[in-house]
Write a structure and sequence with these properties.
The chain is an all-alpha fold. The chain has a single domain (3-258), classed as Four Helix Bundle (Hemerythrin (Met), subunit A) (Up-down Bundle). 72% of the residues lie in helices and 2% in strands. It is built from 11 helices and 2 strands; from the N terminus they run H-H-H-H-H-E-H-H-E-H-H-H-H. Strands 1-2 form a two-stranded antiparallel sheet. It is globular, with a radius of gyration of 19 Å. The protein starts with a helix and ends with a helix. InterPro entries: CDP-alcohol_PTase-I (IPR050324), CDP-diaglyc--ser_O-PTrfase (IPR004533), CDP-OH_P_trans (IPR000462), CDP-OH_PTrfase_TM_dom (IPR043130), CDP_ALCOHOL_P_TRANSF_CS (IPR048254). Its main location: membrane.
């Protein structure tokens, strides 16, 4: 089979994981409509797990395809664009009227723009960084707040303005030019005993209070983007924050910064 034929194929295994992620996102919407907000939030995190595996499985089995890439983007839009916005809206934003649904819409639009921009930069952008907050991380923050509120029996209406601000900011961060580490350059195969211990320790900490820990971790990751961006440029400009820009501008400014 030629490479051209392979690239146009439809392969079962990776697309099954993509479908499972899509189902998890859809289930999150249904669960939130029925008032099961913990289940809805967990479903989005489950979708993140499936999303992290489908691409890796496709590369491991040499079953990458144009269809799989497009299907993955559509599934991500549901799981990390529409689902978090509706979960947050059903939990807290509906009581804010127009402000609530506008915040949810801005988040959804931000996710769509983030995914579209990512697809156009495949093979061009610096693999060490994401341009803008990745949609799964943004989704984790939005539904993480919902999960924390549900765990501590906090009514969404009492945190409606906080939920609106968090949802709005996550939507804006996705379309920003802030640089976020992608961890794609990390050598997962060359692990050590210490690395294994660290992973075990992280899992233990997460298991103690998963909702709160995950919300804090992803929130800190969201804050890391502006910090990394500010430190990587000599002079912060508007194009480093939002607008048309590419990674070359950051690298150029970084080189200038390193000059004596």
């Amino acid at each position: 089979m030629s490479d051209l034929q392979r690239s146009k194929g439809i392969y079962l295994l990776p697309n099954l994981f993509t479908t499972a992620g899509l189902f998890s996102g859809f289930y999150a919407v249904i669960a939130s409509m029925q008032g099961h907000f913990t289940a809805a939030a967990v479903a989005v995190f489950v979708a993140m797990i499936f999303d992290s595996f489908d691409g890796r499985i496709a590369r491991m089995t040499n079953t990458q395809s144009a269809f799989g890439a497009e299907y993955d983007s559509m599934a991500d839009m549901v799981s990390f664009g529409i689902a978090p916005a509706l979960v947050s809206y059903n939990w807290a934003l509906s009581g804010l009227g127009k402000v609530g649904w506008l915040a949810a819409f801005i988040y959804t639009a931000g996710a769509a723009l983030r995914l579209a921009r990512f697809n156009t930069q495949v093979g061009i952008a610096d693999k060490r960084y994401f341009q803008g907050l990745a949609s799964p991380a943004a989704a984790a923050i939005v539904v993480g707040l919902v999960w924390v509120g549900s765990d501590f029996d906090i009514e969404g209406s009492s945190l409606s303005w906080l939920a609106a601000i968090v949802t709005l900011l996550c939507g804006l961060l996705m379309v920003s030019n802030f640089r976020y580490p992608s961890f794609k350059e990390f050598d997962w195969k060359g692990g050590s005993f210490l690395a294994i211990l660290i992973v075990v320790g992280v899992l233990v900490i997460v298991s103690l209070q998963p909702a709160l820990v995950l919300f804090i971790v992803f929130s800190l990751y969201a804050l890391s983007g502006p910090v990394i961006t500010v430190r990587s440029v000599k002079e912060l400009k508007m194009e480093h924050v939002v607008g048309d820009n590419d990674d070359a501008d950051f690298e150029c400014d970084k080189d200038k910064k390193d000059q004596p």
